[in-house]
């Protein structure tokens, strides 16, 4: 006397796994067979004479399982049977014909939605997640009523390990594809011409007008050639009159040869000479300052 048993298992898939990777694993029949911990041998065969018209065009295999009849492996044996595999658009369908009237119909379905995809309604009572991918297994088996409990327990344990191996394999494949994509993508490096074009764009965004300021570059300034100027600047910081405009003008001009050429190149005809403003502020005494302190420095007179 046979008994029919139906059960469903839904496993949520971790993030980062693509739908294509899972489907490629489900449609790889040999991979699915090898991931099953019960299968010991597999051989492709021709469809048997007892195959139905629909299953005749499926892919058939002769499989051999190692089954433990007692806990701890005290008693085990091998069972050979035929099975057919049929690919579906969103999964895989299998049909196993085992000895003693055991017939197992299995259906693997990939469902769910990825980020950015519309979320559809899910079936109630199965614990199906609302977001993310999930793998569903529907089992419809018929066997002897005395063996139903043992077969169901063995099948669930084996398929639990099978699903875990499928998840690990899909993660490895997804990581390998990501690494390959990063390796094949060309690394963008900026050439000097590109770098110069970026500078010109940034200057135009900041309001830099080359017609107003000119395109000449300042000459190089080497500290070792102007040690006298550095000594004056450092010594002026210790004096009480370092903040006076006259002293600022003296430090700004420095030696006659170098700084005069710098100002001549930076000067534009549309702008007021900076030293005219400084000399004007020097000639006008500030509040609280003696006239002797604001007299025009000798360095400015000599330079003129």
Write up what this structure looks like:
By secondary structure, this protein is an alpha+beta fold. It has two domains: 2-114 and 129-178, Alpha-D-Glucose-1,6-Bisphosphate, Chain A, domain 4, CATH 3.30.530; 209-303, no CATH class. Helices cover 38% and strands 24% of the residues. It has helices at 19-26, 29-35, 148-184, 192-205, 210-213, 227-236, 245-253, 256-266, 274-283, 298-303, and strands at residues 2-12, 39-45, 59-68, 76-88, 91-98, 102-113, 132-144. Strands 1-7-6-5-4-3-2 form a seven-stranded antiparallel beta sheet. Strand 3 and strand 4 (76-88) form a beta hairpin. The longest helix has 37 residues, at 148-184. The radius of gyration is 43 Å and the shape is globular.
Which keywords apply here?
304 residues; alpha+beta; Alpha-D-Glucose-1,6-Bisphosphate, Chain A, domain 4; 2 domains; 7-stranded antiparallel beta sheet; 10 helices; 7 strands; 38% helix; globular
Average of pLDDT: 74
Q: Count of DSSP E strands?
A: 7
Strand content: 15-25%
The CATH topology of the largest domain: Alpha-D-Glucose-1,6-Bisphosphate, Chain A, domain 4
C-alpha-based Rg, rounded: 43 Å
CATH H level, superfamily name of the largest domain: START domain
**CATH level-1 class of the largest domain:** Alpha Beta
Helix content: 25-40%
Strand order of the largest sheet: 1-7-6-5-4-3-2
End-to-end Cα distance, whole Å, is 122 Å
Q: What's the structural domain tally? A: 2
- The secondary structure category is alpha+beta
Low-confidence stretches: 188-206, 229-243, 254-258, 299-304
Biggest sheet, in brief?
7 strands, antiparallel
- Going by CATH, the architecture of the largest domain would be 2-Layer Sandwich
| Tally of individual helices | 10
Q: Sketch the topology as an H/E string, one letter per element.
A: EHHEEEEEEHHHHHHHH
- From the spread of the alpha carbons, the general shape counts as globular
């Amino acid at each position: 006397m046979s008994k029919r048993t139906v059960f469903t298992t839904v496993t949520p898939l971790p993030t980062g796994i693509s739908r294509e990777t899972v489907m490629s694993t489900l449609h790889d029949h040999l991979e699915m067979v090898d991931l099953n911990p019960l299968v010991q041998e597999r051989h492709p065969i021709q469809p048997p004479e007892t195959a139905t018209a629909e299953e005749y065009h499926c892919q058939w295999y002769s499989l051999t399982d190692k089954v433990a009849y007692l806990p701890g492996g005290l008693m085990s044996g091998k069972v050979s049977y035929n099975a057919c595999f049929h690919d579906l658009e969103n999964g895989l369908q299998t049909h196993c014909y085992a000895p003693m009237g055991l017939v197992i119909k299995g259906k693997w379905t990939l469902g769910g939605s990825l980020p950015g995809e519309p979320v559809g309604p899910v079936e109630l009572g199965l614990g199906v997640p609302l977001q993310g991918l999930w793998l569903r297994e529907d089992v419809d088996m018929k066997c002897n009523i005395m063996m139903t409990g043992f077969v169901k327990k063995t099948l669930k344990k084996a398929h639990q390990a099978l699903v875990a191996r499928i998840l690990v394999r899909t993660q490895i494949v997804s990581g390998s594809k990501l690494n390959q994509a990063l390796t094949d993508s060309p690394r963008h490096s900026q050439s000097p011409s590109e770098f110069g074009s970026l500078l010109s764009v940034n200057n135009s965004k900041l309001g830099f007008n080359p017609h107003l300021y000119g395109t000449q570059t300042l000459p190089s300034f080497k500290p070792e050639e102007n040690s006298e100027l550095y000594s004056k600047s450092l010594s002026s910081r210790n004096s009480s009159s370092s903040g006076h405009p006259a002293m600022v003008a003296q430090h700004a001009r420095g030696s006659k040869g170098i700084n005069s050429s710098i100002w001549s190149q930076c000067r534009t005809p549309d702008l007021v000479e900076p030293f005219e403003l400084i000399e004007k502020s020097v000639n006008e005494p500030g509040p609280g300052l003696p006239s002797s302190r604001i007299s025009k420095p000798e360095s400015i007179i000599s330079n003129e």
